Amino acid sequence: MIVLGIDPGFSVTGFAIIKHEGGKANLIDYGFLKMSPTKGLPERVGIFHALFLEKIQKFAVTDIALETPFLGKNTQTFLKLGYLRGIVYLLSDTYKTALHELSPSEVKLAVTGSGGAQKEQVARVVYRLFPTVGVVQKADVTDAIAISLCGLWKGKQSNSLTQQYLKKMLTK
């Protein structure tokens, strides 16, 4: 199982790819896509599509985990996120991957034990689970790693087993 986790954003999108083999979760790629605000909407959507098309093909992704947006004060931002989500849906259908949608509170709860955790708390758990990850400058990256991990758990295990796995990983 190879899971691509995406924390979509119209300015910065975090991504991570986790491969599950031998009962272990291995982080094989992560980073972020920063899109220039000077580029138009069609070009940004094209850049987003090209990146994730490449990742799906290069790493033979079997599952995609996508964080769901929440409606904040800016409805235009929410609408634009819908364009990016549409690209993910299309790629998922084209490449026949499973698509796991997770709310921010679901990810926080699964990773930290608290649905109201702060981004820094999520990052601390990610660094503990994957010590080879250097401190990253964008919270979008650690969020994407957490989303990818939750996609792996959602695809492989029930919620109670997820918590057992997390406890086991944190006590190593």
- Structural class based on helices, strands and sheet pairing: alpha/beta
End-to-end separation: 23 Å
| Approximate helicity band | 40-55%
Number of helices: 6
Mean pLDDT: 85
Q: Biggest sheet: strands side by side, in what order?
A: 3-2-1-4-5
Poorly predicted runs are none
CA radius of gyration is 15 Å
What best-fitting shape do the alpha-carbon axes yield?
globular
Largest sheet: 5 strands, mixed
Taken as a percent bin, the fraction of beta residues is: 15-25%
Beta strand count: 5
Task: Output the helix-strand order.
Answer: EEEHEHEHHHH
Question: Topology, pairings included?
Answer:
Elements: E1 2-7, E2 12-21, E3 24-34, H1 41-59, E4 63-67, H2 75-94, E5 98-102, H3 104-112, H4 119-129, H5 139-156, H6 159-170
Parallel strand pairs: 1-4, 4-5
Antiparallel strand pairs: 1-2, 2-3
